[in-house]
Design a protein that fits this description.
The chain has about 140 residues and is α/β, with parallel strands linked by helices. It folds into 2 domains: about 55 residues, no CATH class; about 70 residues, Rossmann fold (3-Layer(aba) Sandwich), CATH 3.40.50.620. The protein has 5 helices and 6 strands. The strands form 3 sheets. Strands 1-4 form a two-stranded parallel sheet. Strands 2-3 form a two-stranded antiparallel ribbon. A hairpin with a 7-residue loop joins β2 and β3.
């Protein structure tokens, strides 16, 4: 054991926790001339519980958190209430017209989050990016 690894093994780290969070956004449905109807959002908990289960199988304890409302304000409120030390999130990486019309939650988090933000661009599962050795990116 090297001196550095001995120090690291004896280091006292503050307790850490991992929350897997998703914001369910209500859908406003209407047609021309009709009164808008707010439809309840899809329950994110089945998905979140599956993610927590997969993390637990890898030895990573996590907690599922489902919020409802507008994404950016809800995430920012949660970060402040929990005194989060890091926000890790995926981003679609949209640009141009899609970004102008839909906005960018990731960009807003980068500007307004009370903690550091780590972004990872999401890649749809249907896209099988090949690695030079012929292996898919997920198999590496």
């Amino acid at each position: 054991m090297t001196e550095l690894s001995a120090i690291a093994a004896n280091a006292v780290l503050p307790p850490a926790s991992l929350e897997v969070l998703q914001v369910a956004v209500p859908v406003v449905a209407s047609t021309a001339g009709e009164t808008p109807v707010v439809l309840p959002p899809e329950d994110p908990m089945p998905y979140l519980r599956d993610v927590v289960k997969r993390l637990a199988e890898q030895g990573v304890p996590a907690q599922a958190v489902a919020l409802e409302g507008s994404v950016s304000p809800e995430v920012l409120r949660h970060l402040k209430e929990t005194a989060a030390s890091l926000l890790c999130m995926t981003t679609h990486g949209w640009s141009g017209l899609a970004r102008m019309v839909l906005g960018s939650v990731a960009e807003e988090m980068m500007r307004k989050a009370p903690c550091p933000v780590l972004l990872r661009r999401s890649v749809p599962e249907a896209v099988d990016r090949k690695h030079p050795e012929g292996k898919s990116a997920q198999a590496r």
